[in-house]
């Protein structure tokens, strides 16, 4: 499988320029904020979201000045959501670095998240790129709703498959969908093409999240603690499916383990084994590949080809074949 560095070769120079735009968009005259944003920039992730923006723009009309703003907007709002997530989850680490809340406490972290959110919105307003602003604002709305829906449903630990998909479509897939739609909008694509790219990104985002859920059952050595979702009482697709094929007594027993014994390694291992034995991993993998194919089908409806379409195809494969 290709690495992300290999996939991004056609847009490498654009990503370098984007980094400067992103860095400049975070600057502040407040010394504390400036110090924290410089710290955030050091934690550079995989840049998958800007890659989706640039490839989508290249495919649907060409990379423009507005594409850099769109990529920065998406990354600013994504970063804001991560800072807020760490507060909500009381997390002390992010990408191998101490989280903002671990170093500067929750109050500062919430304000930093708000600052990044406002910077993204102002970037769009300044350049009068209101379509991109609408696309990404809708994604933020969806992400918030998805997070709250997950919190609400987690109390009962009896999530149906349809609810699971609604949660991950809003919580994870909406942002990747907005990246693709933003890219198309920045290139001047028509409404129909923008919607196709949005739907393409949504399918990719769902496949991405299912892959992430599979990691939790120890399929790969990814550095993610095996059974972490179970310890956090999260019902993901492999477990939801396994619970759906057993009788009520067995279902009740497994849910009880997740609810009351999620901090016991032996019980967590029992739940993982239950999922494997009852076909949860096979089913989730099949669903992930189905969403991958649906993404390919949508992409093939968009005219044109070349390196930008190939780049999107490779990104789709990366989401489902990655090892971490």
Structure description:
The structure is a single chain. With 324 residues, the protein is mainly α. The chain has a single domain (4-321), classed as Orthogonal Bundle (Farnesyl Diphosphate Synthase), CATH 1.10.600.10. The chain contains 15 helices and 2 strands. It has helices spanning 4-7, 12-25, 31-42, 48-60, 65-88, 100-126, 130-154, 161-186, 191-215, 228-231, 237-244, 248-260, 265-277, 280-301, 306-321; strands spanning 93-94, 97-98. Strands 1-2 form a two-stranded antiparallel ribbon. It is globular and about 60 Å long. The two termini are 13 Å apart.
Task: Give the key terms.
324 residues; mainly alpha; Farnesyl Diphosphate Synthase; two-stranded antiparallel sheet; 15 helices; 2 strands; 76% helix; 1% strand; globular
Instruction: Count the domains.
Output: 1
* Order of helix and strand elements from N to C terminus: HHHHHEEHHHHHHHHHH
Helix percentage range: over 70%
The oligomeric state is single chain
Instruction: Give the biggest sheet.
Output: 2 strands, antiparallel
- Principal-axes shape call: globular
Structural class: mainly alpha
Number of strands: 2
Radius of gyration (CA) equals: 20 Å
Mean pLDDT across residues? 87
Stretches where pLDDT is under 50 for at least 5 consecutive residues are: 219-224
What do we call the CATH topology? Answer: Farnesyl Diphosphate Synthase
Strand order of the biggest β-sheet: 1-2
Kindly report the name of the CATH homologous superfamily.
Answer: Farnesyl Diphosphate Synthase
Q: Note the gap between the termini.
A: 13 Å
**Count of individual helical segments:** 15
Strand content: under 5%
CATH architecture call:
Orthogonal Bundle
Query: What is the class in the CATH system?
Result: Mainly Alpha
């Amino acid at each position: 499988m290709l690495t992300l560095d290999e996939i991004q070769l056609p847009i490498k120079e654009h990503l370098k320029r984007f980094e400067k735009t992103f860095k400049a968009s975070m600057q502040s005259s407040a010394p504390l904020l400036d110090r924290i944003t410089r710290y955030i920039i050091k934690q550079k992730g995989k840049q998958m979201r800007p890659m989706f923006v640039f490839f989508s723009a290249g495919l649907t009309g060409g990379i423009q000045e507005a594409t850099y703003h769109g990529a920065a907007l998406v990354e600013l709002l994504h970063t804001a959501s991560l800072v807020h997530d760490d507060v909500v989850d009381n997390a002390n680490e992010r990408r191998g670095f101490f989280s903002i809340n671990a170093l500067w406490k929750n109050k500062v972290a919430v304000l930093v998240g708000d600052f990044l959110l406002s910077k993204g919105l102002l970037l769009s307003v300044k350049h009068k790129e209101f379509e991109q602003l609408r696309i990404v604002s809708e994604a933020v709305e969806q992400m918030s709703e998805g997070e709250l829906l997950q919190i609400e449903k987690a109390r009962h630990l009896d999530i149906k498959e349809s609810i699971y998909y609604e949660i991950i479509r809003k919580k994870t897939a909406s942002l990747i969908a907005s990246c693709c739609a933003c890219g198309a909008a920045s290139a001047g694509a028509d409404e129909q093409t923008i919607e196709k790219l949005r739907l393409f990104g949504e399918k990719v985002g769902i496949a991405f999240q299912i892959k992430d859920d599979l990691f939790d059952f120890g399929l790969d050595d990814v550095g993610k603690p095996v059974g972490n979702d179970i310890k956090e009482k999260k019902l993901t697709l492999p477990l939801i499916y396994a619970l759906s094929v057993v009788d009520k007594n067995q279902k009740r027993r497994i849910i009880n383990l997740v609810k009351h014994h999620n901090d016991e390694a032996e019980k967590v291992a029992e739940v993982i084994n239950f999922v494997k034995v009852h076909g949860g991993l096979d089913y989730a993998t099949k669903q992930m590949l189905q969403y991958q194919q649906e993404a390919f089908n949508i992409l093939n409806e968009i005219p044109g080809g070349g390196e930008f379409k190939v780049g999107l195809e490779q990104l789709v494969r990366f989401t489902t074949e990655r090892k971490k």
